[in-house]
């Protein structure tokens, strides 16, 4: 691969979400493979700013935010950058950024392939969006995405739903899973954990994610309330978000104060997963579910809702973990109990996580980006 090959990655910013982490991990891997990578952001902000790989050029467009569709303010700057840079390929993620990336690439008239990564289960996302976005976003996607050289979805379920909801040709969408397993994460599993609950024989269940409606942690709390009727257990939920007051109130209402802890954002949840007895995901929807792969990577047994659309694909339809209905606390409790009673072979779980290693996924992205 020639050193002259270059990729421009475009994002709104570097907020601490899954899309941003994925793009940083891929950018790092691309650089390690000898490519030149520049990461262009509409605005230089977000907690991942210090995570940008050293050899990746970070370009801040410092774009204005016009009313109605703020990210369009980045369009002139991105067009100018592409004309100056003339990359071989452009890669973006997130709906609005994808639309801007396609428009900028075509309007700049540079000879670059443009690939957009769709992360959301679109119909479920729109169910929880404002009415204006429910009307506008599918139409924008339907109008703009066909001008991309490739549309990548992070799961088969996301691809199927995108085609149906936005009216795209399903054959035009390529599925490439998330690069959820990285050397950095593997190195964090064995770091020491200063947390008292991992020091005795009581089983510990762990959940990790933002405290939002999507993650549906009330169902997990109710599941643990049912499980406690059968056996002693503890629950740790690592994450922060706007639902914290509701969750704290529910913990008190269910009488779980002594066995549930909400420590907030944790720098290294992977070491805690490595110490936990079961990882539980209670989400109403996911685009993929990186955190499931991260749990499998240390051999932690997994129980997940069979939500749209990534968990069932990661867990191979239940081969590598328990799948339960969405919003059913008793079913979730039963699934957790089953994993505690008969935990799977940890090595087999780790081998499944290897299927989502960043070097493997980066190779698939380069095939799409550089038409190789």
UniProtKB/TrEMBL annotation:
<dbReference type="Pfam" id="PF13579">
    <property type="entry name" value="Glyco_trans_4_4"/>
</dbReference>
<protein>
    <submittedName>
        <fullName>Glycosyltransferase</fullName>
    </submittedName>
</protein>
<feature type="domain" description="Glycosyltransferase subfamily 4-like N-terminal">
    <location>
        <begin position="17"/>
        <end position="178"/>
    </location>
</feature>
<dbReference type="InterPro" id="IPR001296">
    <property type="entry name" value="Glyco_trans_1"/>
</dbReference>
<dbReference type="Pfam" id="PF00534">
    <property type="entry name" value="Glycos_transf_1"/>
</dbReference>
<dbReference type="GO" id="GO:0016757">
    <property type="term" value="F:glycosyltransferase activity"/>
</dbReference>
<keyword id="KW-0808">Transferase</keyword>
<feature type="domain" description="Glycosyl transferase family 1">
    <location>
        <begin position="200"/>
        <end position="353"/>
    </location>
</feature>
<dbReference type="InterPro" id="IPR028098">
    <property type="entry name" value="Glyco_trans_4-like_N"/>
</dbReference>
């Amino acid at each position: 691969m020639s050193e002259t090959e270059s990729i421009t990655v475009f994002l709104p910013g570097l907020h601490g979400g899954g899309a941003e982490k994925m793009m940083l991990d891929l950018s790092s891997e691309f650089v390690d493979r000898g490519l030149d990578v520049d990461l262009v952001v509409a605005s230089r902000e977000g907690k991942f700013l210090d995570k940008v790989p050293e050899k990746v050029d970070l370009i801040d467009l410092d774009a204005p935010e016009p009313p109605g569709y703020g990210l369009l303010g980045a369009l002139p700057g991105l067009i100018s950058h592409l004309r100056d840079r003339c990359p071989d390929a452009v890669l973006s993620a997130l709906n609005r950024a994808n639309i801007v990336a396609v428009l900028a690439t075509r309007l700049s008239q540079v000879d670059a392939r443009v690939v957009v990564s769709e992360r959301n289960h679109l119909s479920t996302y729109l169910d929880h969006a404002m009415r204006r976005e429910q009307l506008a976003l599918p139409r924008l996607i339907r109008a703009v995405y066909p001008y991309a050289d490739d549309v990548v979805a992070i799961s088969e379920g996301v691809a199927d739903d995108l085609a149906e909801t936005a009216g795209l040709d399903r054959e035009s969408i390529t599925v490439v899973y998330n690069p959820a397993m990285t050397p950095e994460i593997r190195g964090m599993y064995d770091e020491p954990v200063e947390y008292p609950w991992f020091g005795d024989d009581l089983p510990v269940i762990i959940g990790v994610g933002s405290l939002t409606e999507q993650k549906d942690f009330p169902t997990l709390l109710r599941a643990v309330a049912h499980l406690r009727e059968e056996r002693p257990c503890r629950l740790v939920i690592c994450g922060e978000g706007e639902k914290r007051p509701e969750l704290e109130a529910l913990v008190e209402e269910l009488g779980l104060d002594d066995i549930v802890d909400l420590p907030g954002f944790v720098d290294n949840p992977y070491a805690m997963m490595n110490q936990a007895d079961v990882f539980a995901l209670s989400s109403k929807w996911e685009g993929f579910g990186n955190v499931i792969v991260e749990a499998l990577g240390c051999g932690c047994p997994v129980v997940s809702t069979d939500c749209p659309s990534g968990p069932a694909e990661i867990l191979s339809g239940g081969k590598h973990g328990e799948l339960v209905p969405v919003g059913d606390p008793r079913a979730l409790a039963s699934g957790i109990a089953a994993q505690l009673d008969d935990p799977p072979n940890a090595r087999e779980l780790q081998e499944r996580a290897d299927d989502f290693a960043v070097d493997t996924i980066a190779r698939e992205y380069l095939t799409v980006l550089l038409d190789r």
